[in-house]
Amino acid sequence: MADQPTDAALRRTSRTKITPEREAELYEAVLELLRERGYDALTMDAVAARTRSSKATLYRQWGSKGQLVIAALRHGKPFDIDDIDTGTLAGDLREMARRTGRAACEDTELLQGITVAARQDEDLRLAMRELLIRPEGAVLDRALRRGVERGEVHPDNPALGYVIPALLGALIARPLIEDDYADGPYLEHFLDSVVLPALLGRPAPAHD
Amino acid sequence: MADQPTDAALRRTSRTKITPEREAELYEAVLELLRERGYDALTMDAVAARTRSSKATLYRQWGSKGQLVIAALRHGKPFDIDDIDTGTLAGDLREMARRTGRAACEDTELLQGITVAARQDEDLRLAMRELLIRPEGAVLDRALRRGVERGEVHPDNPALGYVIPALLGALIARPLIEDDYADGPYLEHFLDSVVLPALLGRPAPAHD
């Protein structure tokens, strides 16, 4: 599921004539522009100018600004959790929390800007859900399934259905509550205090 | 804490010459305009026109658009959880989840719009934190403290520090993951599946 391109992506890929190197260059330029200006102020004109390509090419290739931006984000692999398999569910989730927290801190402005814009822009919201949240969610789901198969989590434990909103929620909510990002240590502590006790069915150890 | 006005609010109150009825009328007009146009498109000019008051009065009275909007929201008591005291922590939190979910569904567009705008508008973000999140958080903290005093939760349980981000996070994250609001039943099930097991130290019952 994580790596299955959508029909639209397949259609575009089959049409493309640009090289992987050129594609990577374009994505880098989009991320640069996003960091400089934010999503709302980013225009296809600016991307075309910065990358010396035509706007028509950009639209033909990516369909919309939202899809180009998410493709660029996904190319940068902000979370990059696909290879995690530590042998225990707690180990897997902690490593995912660490990497996600690190990515969220490095590119908080960029990711926040995208999340904000996505709430008002349906095209961007669907691209984000399809190309970012769903693939990362599928990786997390596989880790949960391994935990169930190893007997670490009861297959009927209802917490299994809430791991993604709990972690994504903590990531988004912290900056609203206090002036701080949800970094790796915060997410890991949240995981150890709330998510893992609910999943593994034992009280969290009191941290000192 | 929930009811302590800020210094700025006190300063404004001491200056005010408008009656409570007039104030309520103004807040209603602001909420109406917010539902019609959203935060970004709402102008102090429009509030002045709709309420037949002068812009100078609005600024003198509330300081900024952000503060006026949050005062109007707070006046509408969107969550209204102050009186909850069921005798058990689970009962208190479930009732809070039900009311919060109901409010979030009734005024989702409005609350989402505010949350979105708050991420780019520091004045609005501080007003939201000070006048909405902190007071509701204080009510929730009192419920947690009663749970500790009754011996339902161990005072060192680290989950105590994450109840607010967990619930606020679930509220915000669900619409990003699926096209659905975090309504009362969703929040209550999240609470039963994740937050209460972590707090009370027993596995969640498998729901049928």
Automatic annotation (TrEMBL), chains A, B:
InterPro entries noted in UniProt: Homeodomain-like_sf, HTH-type_TetR-like_transc_reg, HTH_TetR, Tet_transcr_reg_TetR-rel_C_sf, TetR_C
Gene3D superfamilies assigned to the protein according to its UniProt record, in alphabetical order: Homeodomain-like (1.10.10.60), Tetracycline Repressor, domain 2 (1.10.357.10)
DNA-binding region: 43-62
Keyword terms of this UniProt record: DNA-binding, Transcription, Transcription regulation
UniProt key word Transcription: yes
Domain of life of the source: Bacteria
Sample GO molecular function, one term: transcription cis-regulatory region binding
Pfam families noted in UniProt: TetR_C_11, TetR_N
The keyword DNA-binding is annotated on this UniProt entry: yes
Start and end residues of each HTH tetR-type domain: 20-80
Name of the protein this chain belongs to: DNA-binding transcriptional regulator, AcrR family
